[in-house]
Design brief:
Largest sheet: 8 strands, mixed
Bound molecules: S-adenosylmethionine
GO molecular function, one term: methyltransferase activity
Keywords: Cytoplasm, Methyltransferase, RNA-binding, rRNA processing, S-adenosyl-L-methionine, Transferase
Radius of gyration: 24 Å
Structural class: alpha/beta
InterPro entries: MeTrfase_RsmB-F_NOP2_cat (IPR049560), MeTrfase_RsmB-F_NOP2_dom (IPR001678), NusB-like_sf (IPR035926), NusB_RsmB_TIM44 (IPR006027), RCMT (IPR023267), rRNA_ssu_MeTfrase_B (IPR004573), RsmB-like_ferredoxin (IPR054728), SAM-dependent_MTases_sf (IPR029063)
Subcellular location: Cytoplasm
Function: Specifically methylates the cytosine at position 967 (m5C967) of 16S rRNA.
Length: about 425
Amino acid sequence: MTKTARSIALETLMSVLQNKSYSNLSLNNNLRQAKLSVADQNLATNLVYGTIQYKIYLKYQLKGLVKTKLTENYLEPLLLMSIYQIQFLDKIPTRAVLDEANKLAKKFGKHHSAGYRIVNGILRAFVRRGEVLPNKKDEVEYLSVKESFPKWLVEYFIKNWGLKKTEKMLISLNQPAKNSVRLALKDQKQTFFQLKKLGFNPEPSALASDSVILSHGGIVDTSLFKEGKLTVQDEAASLVVEAFDFKGDEEVLDACSAPGGKTVQIAEHLPTGHVTALDIHKKKLNLVHQNAERMDVADKVSTKAIDARKADECFSKGEFAKILVDAPCSGLGLLRRKPEIRYSKTKQDLVNLQKIQLDILEHVSGLLAQNGELVYSTCSISIQENEEVVEKFLKSHPNFELSKFKAGNLTSNGMLKILPDSYGSDGFFIAKFKLRG
Ligand SMILES: C[S@@+](CC[C@H](N)C(=O)[O-])C[C@H]1O[C@@H](n2cnc3c(N)ncnc32)[C@H](O)[C@@H]1O
């Protein structure tokens, strides 16, 4: 079978929607085997992520149009992918979507299958009828379908931020993520100039001091990336390390370090210091090494594969001047970049993660030196993983207090939460603690 952007997208969607494969792994695997042009790779990527992102909305559109059971397993993914194109991709004419869907149905259907007739009939009926949405009176159901987020998440957002802000956040989370990069501290002016020369139109970040926003992707294929002049990191993620006040000679512990984005950022601030990077997954520490090599800070980084909840068995009390706990979390701040997170997480996950986050803080906080700084961060915006963790940690550790900090262009009294619609960045939470004097 000749592989096209659409057949790759359909194969990927079948394995993601039916076998729960990871979209990025499955798509990369399928793309690697197919050798498509860059434009076709981009189309396949858009079809896969867009269809997953809008899954709830797209399934709702099928209501009332599907009269028979969709027995062949390519049928539903193909219908969802086609409606996604009709509704969201202005540049593709509806007729082309129907023709391509027809071809795919013939390719993927069994011999003598009537699948292509079913696809044709349903898509034509959808085009005639148009979009349907639930009654606006039911705010949760309406927003859940319109913006394609599970009901519990819509309810959670409304409860914590109100209806108006929730609408803004959900709409913003469905926009494409920005192309943020962090420039290495060395040669920043020159790197900025090179980015301009290469046509990436860099714009300084409104948030982080060392970050810039590029006009398009593809930076990882440039020599600037390969030579470690910059790294791919969201501007809100870059703020976390900026919350520390570095002297430059400190021993630093990065308790949850892989893939090492923040480890290398810390190391760049340590001309004569050192960072010990932990992670529970030994394999993932290879990524920390690769990052440190590429960013030319490998001599300042050592790694150790341990559970941070056992860090106090491996290191001495007061050994580190600075500690970062960039904790495992639900990733609710990353919904724009990782469309599946919205469907895989549950409210119970937030509670389970809080326990792990508190346990990690419990076992690393004793390693902080007098006058040291402890920064806790997550790429989640939930209350359970952030404000509640801080409150409970402070309650059980009265020798710690929140500490004011400045990070990039922002200042905070001790806790900073960046919601995803405020700057169009990832959602992030940062808290800084110090030992009471
Ligand atoms: C949010 S990610 C860290 C991202 C990283 N700081 C960066 O900037 O690239 C959380 C990491 O914590 C690791 N992790 C999860 N549980 C852990 C534990 N109990 N001890 C140490 N690491 C853990 C995960 O494997 C994951 O790599």
